[in-house]
Amino acid sequence: MIKIEYNLTSYEDLLRHIARILQLKVNGDTIVFAADIATGNVRLIRLPNGLEMLVYDYTPVQDILFHRKKTTKEFFAFRFDEITGSKEASKSSVFFGNTTHEWYHLAAANVHQKNINIILSRDWLQKLLGREEHGDTILNFISLKTPMYHYELLDIEYRRLINEMTDIAINKDLETFIVQNRVMVMMERFFTRLYKKISDVNTNIKISADEIVRLKLVEQSLVSDYSGLPPNINQLSRIAAMSPSKLKDLFKKMFGLPVYQYYQKNRMNRAKAMLLSKKYSVQQVCNELGYNTVNDFSKTFVKTFDQLPEEI
């Protein structure tokens, strides 16, 4: 397996970082993969509106694990994936997340990857959504959601837009504007659907700005260390400077889960990320996350992901 780790927020720098790891040359703004790595390429596109894109169109001959490490610089990233291979490996989805948390993407051997990656700063996003009638609602939701991970399945229209962008030759200003148009249409579709979900689910959430700050402190304390028992509800309520009952109520409204279900979900996501990195054995993950026995850890893992840790 090839591992590509990074925490860069410039896609130009990331393209050159990938080239260094794979010992390949960047020709213009394109990397052509060597035959022992993959067939295909990855290219950088700079859009007139200030966004950068990386477009991957390749089939790896061995597994490639992309690991974005968390960074203190808050940027947001879209990833539009059209992945085709075996029936089990096929996947078409939109991913939206921020760079203050880590995430992984495994490109499996012999599975074709068509990925469009777009990175945008918080300022750029605020300017975009600030012009929209309900933009503040979306921005507030993004601020509340910690960590910010959102997935959506691709439909036929998304696929059409992706194919138009990956099939076009990027060498003229007009073609670059065409790509920018398609990107903005994809963002419009994503944020329109996200707003509808927010409106349907969170119409009655009312949390003050000060309470948001205190709830984020609770969340940070809750998921900062999994090696021992989590803080109890009285300890967390002191951090939040609110009663235990109010904390439990507002925490669920803000993060979508009760306090300890949220803790357990993030604990299991951390376990899966550690196993995917191939740096830890099941026993090491078990110890790191505070489980007394591998059997206890495996039962929880199977209940969460419907597969054994050894199968990751």
SSE topology:
Layout (H helix, E strand, L loop, with lengths): L1 E5 L4 H12 L3 E2 L2 E3 L5 E9 L5 E9 L3 E5 L6 E10 L6 E8 L4 E5 L4 E10 H9 L4 H10 L4 E5 L2 H12 L5 H29 L7 H15 L9 H8 L3 H12 L3 H18 L5 H7 L5 H12 L7
Parallel strand pairs: 1-6
Antiparallel strand pairs: 2-3, 3-4, 4-5, 5-10, 6-9, 7-8, 7-10, 8-11
Helix pairs in contact: 2-3, 4-5, 6-7
What features would you highlight for this structure?
11 helices, eight-stranded antiparallel β-sheet, three-stranded mixed β-sheet, 2 domains, Jelly Rolls, 46% helix, 312 residues, alpha+beta, globular, Arc Repressor Mutant, subunit A
Account of the protein in words:
With 312 residues, the protein is of the alpha+beta class. The protein folds into two domains: 200 residues, Sandwich (Jelly Rolls); 103 residues, Arc Repressor Mutant, subunit A. Helices cover 46% and strands 23% of the residues. The protein has eleven helices and eleven strands. The chain has an eight-stranded antiparallel beta sheet, with helices on both faces. A three-stranded mixed beta sheet has the order 1-6-9, with helices on one face.
